[in-house]
Design a protein that fits this description.
This protein is an alpha+beta fold and 88 residues long. The protein has a single domain, classed as 2-Layer Sandwich (Alpha-Beta Plaits). Helix content is 11%, strand content 20%.
């Protein structure tokens, strides 16, 4: 795992998969696979944290990297992603 410098400045942009930031999340995206086309992958394309993986079964959210920003839900053309309160 990479070290974060003083001031939390990331000297290596684009490396979000090096940092497990899921514990920051208050809202959790959940995919409704009844609505999901399993092939558009807009959630993958728009996720700023590389928290969505492409699989043969459709998108898979990797919660260790998901901050719960909701961009995936906002961009989903089928409204198949819902943000629900995170339970700790």
């Amino acid at each position: 795992m990479a070290k974060v410098t003083v001031g939390a400045v990331n000297p290596d942009p684009g490396s979000s998969r090096n940092y497990e930031t899921g514990s920051w999340r208050t809202l959790k995206p959940v995919i409704d696979f009844e609505k999901c086309t399993k092939k558009c992958f807009f959630c993958y394309d728009f996720c700023p944290d590389s928290a969505v993986e492409k699989t043969d079964d459709g998108p898979k959210i990797i919660y260790a990297y998901c901050k719960g920003c909701g961009i995936c839900a906002y961009e989903c053309p089928k409204e198949a992603i819902e943000l629900v309160p995170e339970e700790k």
